[in-house]
Design goal:
With about 450 residues, the chain is of the alpha/beta class. It has 13 helices and 21 strands. Strands 1, 2, 3, 4, 5, 16, 19, 20 and 21 form a nine-stranded mixed sheet that branches. It has an eight-stranded parallel sheet with strand order 6-9-10-11-12-13-14-15. Strands 7-8 form a two-stranded antiparallel ribbon. Bound molecules: N-(aminocarbonyl)-beta-alanine and zinc ion. Zinc ion binds next to loops.
């Protein structure tokens, strides 16, 4: 089956050009001027940008967490992804105590495969770093699973990995071409703060922020970077949200170390002031939104190339779930939504001149593809999967729960005015979203085995 996208402006991370895109059997065959393909379905893309689909490197779909599960299952989450121009998601599998890596992934893959509307892969959050698990890094990488996350927090939830675990994992990652990611916050300081606030009856969402303010995150960023530097091992910091951590990343990168920083749209857009709002509980996620200085530092880091990826940490909980903590912030399930907002948000920033369209493509598509070894993704080039987004920079759009495709009953992005919007999303050549309508199907998405790093 052939598809010819004609007359658009193709934007890759390196450059843009006026070009047609010819797709055959789900793969980009040719990119060039005045292409012809008799019999092909022709799509007129004049006035539109033709972009590689975004890769959301951080989602938590039907994620068992905080005594409940996130509200989007693999179907709803990947449906929302498709409608936001995300053609691949990385979801997190949590290793339970005693489990092997592939043993942990197998049941999640079985759950995901029949429901996924776009392609997917997994990062594995390790919680039990036994010698057997360390030994399994190489087999996991060979099975297309070369990235592992360590929670430096959630001590009372039994998820935390200590410094010795971080060092062992980093060392082994170097031997195996795998990549260690960290959720960096200091658990002991957080837990002491929480105990103090509870004893004082300070239980509103504002105290979620005050229990884990800027230095709590920065200390852990700096600690993780320290260990990565000491071993000269690559490190990926998920959802970076503070200025001091951003500076530590900048310094390490400038000194020649491979430190990747990811941030999320919620940290670029909201500040800790949201926790004073009547709906403040809906913004409770970890790390929390920080102050204006941190937000400014993240934008600068993004513009200057020290933020390598923007992903969402999509982990929605319904109003009813969030209400568990209406009188006590410690009972609010942690997480916010965003998979449908990631690309439109970044492209809006490009449309307004805050970043370039190339930068939006770089951090939302090209870099996650390169960092995590998705060799067929991340660019509009011959041989790549035909994961293609058509973006109309002149079509204003206001985000509302009524025009989103998640199963969640509200969105933290309600009322956000965007200057342009996604017209269509193609996943491996198949139209899965067009003008507000989801056109994909459960089970279409495939597991993408990721390539290990060269070492
Ligand atoms: O609040 C968040 N971020 N929830 C999801 C789990 C995590 O820490 O990434
Ligand atoms: Zn996290």
């Amino acid at each position: 089956m052939e598809l010819l996208i004609k007359g658009g402006t193709v934007v890759n991370a390196q450059e843009r050009c006026e070009a047609d895109v010819l797709v055959r059997d789900g793969v980009i065959e040719e990119v060039g001027r005045h292409l012809a393909a008799p019999g092909a379905e022709v799509v007129d893309a004049s006035g539109l940008l033709v972009l590689p689909g975004a890769i959301d490197a951080h989602t938590h779909l039907e994620f068992p967490f905080n005594g409940t599960a996130s509200a989007d299952d693999y179907f709803a989450g990947t449906r929302a992804a498709a409608c936001g121009g995300v053609t691949m998601v990385f979801d997190f599998v949590t290793q339970r105590k005693g489990q092997g890596i592939r043993e942990a992934v197998a049941p999640r893959d079985a759950l995901c495969a029949p429901k996924a509307c776009v392609d997917y892969s997994f990062h594995v959050a390790l919680t039990d770093l036994t010698p057997q698990v360390l030994a399994e890094f190489s087999d996991a990488a060979a099975a297309g699973l070369p990235s592992f996350k360590l929670y430096m927090v959630y001590k009372r939830d039994g998820l935390m990995m200590n410094d010795a675990d971080i060092v062992a994992a980093l060392r082994r990652s170097k031997e195996t071409g795998t990549l260690i990611a960290v959720h960096a916050e200091n658990p002991d300081v957080i837990d002491r703060n929480i105990d103090t606030f509870r004893a004082e009856g300070k239980l509103s969402p504002w105290y979620h922020y005050l229990s884990r303010p800027e230095p709590v995150e920065a200390e852990a960023d700096i600690r993780a970077i320290h260990w990565a530097k000491s071993l000269d091992a690559p490190l990926y910091i998920v959802h970076l949200a503070n200025a001091e951590g951003m500076q530590a990343v900048r310094d390490a990168v400038n000194a020649g170390y491979t430190i990747y920083a990811e941030t999320c749209p919620q940290y670029l857009h909201f500040t800790s002031e949201v926790y004073k709002r009547p709906d403040g509980r809906n913004f409770v996620c970890s790390p929390p939104m920080k102050g204006q200085a941190s937000q400014d530092a993240l934008w600068k880091g993004l513009q200057e190339g020290y933020i390598k990826t923007v992903a969402t940490d999509h982990c929605p909980f319904t109003q009813a779930q969030k209400d568990w903590g209406k009188d006590d912030f410690t009972k609010i399930p942690n997480g916010c939504m965003g998979v449908e907002n990631l690309y439109p948000y970044l492209l809006d920033a490009a449309n307004r001149g805050r970043i370039s369209f190339e930068k939006a493509v770089e951090v939302a598509s090209r870099n996650p593809a390169q960092i995590f070894g998705c060799t067929k993704k991340g660019a509009i080039l011959p041989g790549k999967d035909a994961d293609i987004v058509l973006y109309d920079p002149h079509h204003p759009f206001t985000v509302s729960v009524s025009n989103m495709h998640s199963d969640c009953d509200y969105t933290i992005w309600e009322g956000l005015e965007l200057s342009g919007y996604i017209r269509s999303t193609y996943a491996r050549g198949r139209l899965v979203y067009h003008d507000g309508d989801f056109l994909g199907e459960a089970g279409y998405g495939r597991f993408v085995p990721c390539a290990p790093r060269k070492h």
